[in-house]
Design goal:
The chain is mainly α. Helices cover 65% and strands 0% of the residues.
Length: 152
């Protein structure tokens, strides 16, 4: 959670600090510049997501540990029971991995706010688009670069 802790370096409730920070956030042609209020709302949403995902991850990790611990207790289980248990473990593992990935993306989005690079495409350096970032704050690529990436 080091990323979450580092966000306090720029006090998002301090209007002057926030005003300096949001000037560095790019916007596409025709979009209005970011406001401190908009950035605060995104940061609050990301912080709430981090809290939620951390709780989900702890729960999913505990469930996975329980499944793995009990995986050898199947003396007398038939093949169908073993297969069902294996499938359940795989699904729980996929859930844990997905939650960890989402948590990492959320922490990186909060770090981009801190660094003043929020809303900048990591591939081409252009603006991602304010509406896109507001809808999906974890976005790191503009639509063009994302489409290019998905075609590969």
């Amino acid at each position: 959670m080091a990323v979450n802790d580092s966000i306090t370096a720029v006090d998002l409730t301090d209007s002057k600090e926030l005003a300096k920070l949001v000037r560095s956030f790019p916007v596409r042609d025709g979009e209005k510049p970011w406001t401190g209020k908009e950035v605060r709302e995104v940061a609050d949403e990301l912080t709430a997501d981090i809290d939620r995902l951390t709780g989900e991850l702890a729960s999913a990790d505990a469930e996975l540990s329980n499944l793995l611990r009990n995986s050898g207790d199947g003396a007398g289980d038939d093949q169908a029971d073993s297969g069902s248990s294996a499938l359940e473990r795989e699904q729980e593992l996929a859930l844990v991995i997905n939650t960890r990935d989402m948590l990492g993306q959320t922490q990186r989005a909060l770090a981009r706010i801190q660094a003043g690079t929020f809303g900048t495409c990591e591939s081409c350096g252009n603006a991602i688009g304010k509406a896109r970032v507001q809808a999906f704050p974890r976005a790191t690529l503009c639509v063009t670069c994302k489409q290019r990436e998905e075609r590969r």
